[in-house]
Design brief:
The chain is α+β, with helices and mostly antiparallel strands. It has one domain. It contains two helices and five strands, in the order H-H-E-E-E-E-E. Strands 2-1-3-4-5 form a five-stranded antiparallel sheet. The protein is rod-shaped, with a radius of gyration of 31 Å.
Length: about 200
Amino acid sequence: MEMELSPRARRRERGTSLVEVLVAALLLVIVALGLVPLLTRAMASNVSGADSTTVSNYAKTGAENLRQASFFWQELIVPAGQTEGLQTYYWTRGDGREVGDGMEGWVRMAAAPDPDTILPPPGGRGAVPWRRNTRVHYYNINDLSADSRFNDPLDGGIDPIFVHLKDYEVEVEGVDTSSIILGERRRIIVRTLKAF
């Protein structure tokens, strides 16, 4: 003898309808679409933070290397007839064809370019994501102004016995403007005085 099911019990046994599945899928898509901008923003923040850290580390390392160098080291020399010594380096990533060939690292430019000009990779060495400018000025201790600033740098051709301080700044800047995520170039300047 079979028992007749009530209409309510029959509805429970039928399972899930196609409409219910579509509604659940639509709700899942709406929630997922709400999370996409958050994930995209998190990725952009991570890339931006990594670039800022890299720029900062390269600038501090460059300044620290100059601090440990001799007072008369080549990179701390101002050419005669100028009041500023400028040396420009580019960080190049190897093109990936050669392994262990030393193709990645800082490469000095022969002539100092306009700091606002983005140049192609030097010597075909691959991508150039960073540029480092090192600027050096000579000062005599008598050039110290009342507001504790050095305002008049000395000419590079002056007799070295009159150079008491060297002011050097290391500026590192990202030059890769192709990144859609970043949208801006990262830049930091580390400035230091070196006494004789």
